Amino acid sequence: MNITTTNKIEIKKRLHSIAKYILDQQLDNGAIPWFKGDKLDPWDHSEAIMALTITGEYQAAEKGFSWLEKNQTAEGYWFAKYLGDINDGDLDRFKIETNFVAYPATALWHYYLATRDKALVQRYFPMITKAINFVVSHQNEQGDIQWALSKKEPLPKDALVTACASILRSIECAISTAELLEQKTLKWRRAHLKLGDALKTKPWRFDRSWESKARFSMDWFYPILSGVFTQNESKLRLQQGWEKFVVNNYGCKCVADQPWVTVAESCELIIALIAANQRDKAITIYEQLLRWQDSDGGFWTGYVYRDNCIWPEEKTTWTAAAVALASDALFEHSDAAKLFTSTSELFFSQNA
Fold it and tell me: Given CA atoms 3, 17, 335, 284 in this order, what sign does their dihedral have?
């Protein structure tokens, strides 16, 4: 499939089939599990909300925000995993991951960029305020943010590159939302600057207590989505890891030493490539991924090219959502298309 003006209709059809698949998995209470009967986590739930927003399914997206509001704790967090049919009380009440808690802020600002619906943003801003305040309360003096907490057992005091990159963009989105509503942002701005500085200049603050995650492709490309790298810096970063992670004709590996390409990682790499002004490479990978869409609109999670098999045999909502976000970044279906491909004016202005 060559991406030309003659097949833009086909691209739109694929996008709306993704929305239909996610809608089919969404529960009446607004929860968007990985697929019906499976677990939910707040990060992937928020990603699915963004896909619904891109495709104009605003009512369903708002139901997703409503589920988040209803299930947020008084302290401002969500648990890392909700189970089964996502009924109230059916959850894992132990682990809390800070990047999961931060990500709804990205989804809400994304919704505003796409819709300019200030009233909805105003309604859910208190939820975002509590969430971001919770996250920044776990920031180390060096700028990195504790990766997770547990009510069951002590967890290592450490930080993850990809998680902190995601948090950084979420804090920026929260600041943008606050400024829209004429709210104070000084504490969040300080946290944003310190975290961005840690990501760019303090690599020793990450993976301090476990084996390095550098074999995972997300640590390679996802920091570009945080906005703290210039276009040239992003291009150089991608060049340095290209041979390690990208498999010709298939896409991006999840882990460097495993023969497994995954659709979601490939989509996030597409967005990073656009940020690095490498659109031709982004389109090539996008074309390669379309084979993994099933007849119901969902996408298979990954493919083991050594064994010529799909694995795992599941079609997650977050995989489909990642394709929608990559398609939006490439073809600008919505006014939120540049959210992840733009450098952070906030970070660079604070560093000036």
Answer: negative
Rg (CA), the chain: 19
- Domain total of the chain: 1
- Phi and psi angles of residue 82, each rounded to the nearest 5 degrees, phi first: -115, 145
pTM more than 0.90: yes
Give the CATH number, domain containing residue 243: 1.50.10.20
Q: Give pLDDT tens digits for 19-60.
A: 999 999 999 999 999 999 999 999 999 999 999 999 999 999
**Residues whose CB falls within 8 Å of the CB of residue 88, separated by 6 or more in sequence, listed in order:** 71
Give pLDDT tens digits for 297-346.
999 999 999 999 999 999 999 999 999 999 999 999 999 999 999 999 99
Instruction: Collect all residues with Cβ–Cβ distance below 8 Å to 174 and sequence separation of at least 6.
Output: 102, 105, 109, 128, 129, 132, 188
Q: List CB contacts of 191: < 8 A, sequence separation 6 or more.
A: 136, 139, 171
C-alpha span between 194 and 75 (Å, rounded): 23
> Which domain, by its residues, includes 131?
5-351
Listed in order, strand segments (DSSP E) in 151-301 are 246-247, 251-252, 260-262
3, 84, 225, 305, 317 from 343: Cα distances, Å: 26, 39, 8, 34, 27
Q: Give the end-to-end CA distance of the chain in Å, rounded to a whole number.
A: 44
Give, to the nearest 10 degrees, the angle between helix 279-289 and helix 263-275.
160
**128: nearest Cα among 152, 111, 147, 146:** 111
Tally of CB atoms within 10 A around 296:
11
